[in-house]
Amino acid sequence: MTWALGIAAVLAWLGVLYQLRAFLRRGRSPLVVYYWFSLLFVSLALSFVLPHVYPRFDAMTGIPNLSKLLANVYAVLAVLSAQNVVYASHISGPMASRLRLASLADAAATLVVMIVLFRSSGPLPETSQFWKHYELS
Description:
Layout: H1 2-25, H2 30-48, H3 54-61, H4 66-90, H5 94-120, H6 130-133
Helix pairs in contact: 1-2, 2-4, 4-5
């Protein structure tokens, strides 16, 4: 199953690189900016949970499970960016601004809660075989 995650990460990074040209050319368009950042954040989230990346990153920083926190932070930011793609492409005027502000507030609150819970909990036991560890009998 880990090979599928690796393929997904590679494909996501290829998407970031492919769309980089459009981002650099038409970077002033909010739709292009939100779309490119959603791809970037998905790529980062997938990269931080790769089985050969997260143990090394955690060992390098000395903070257990930090890579998983960052992967989840990037996932929240990817969702925020994707929501803004929808707002920029389908909704205009004051309603789009209100929705963007509400989405930003929701994402900020989610990130604050995630970080507070991460800081308040101790290191969790690691398992790379999550589905086997929590499998129902």
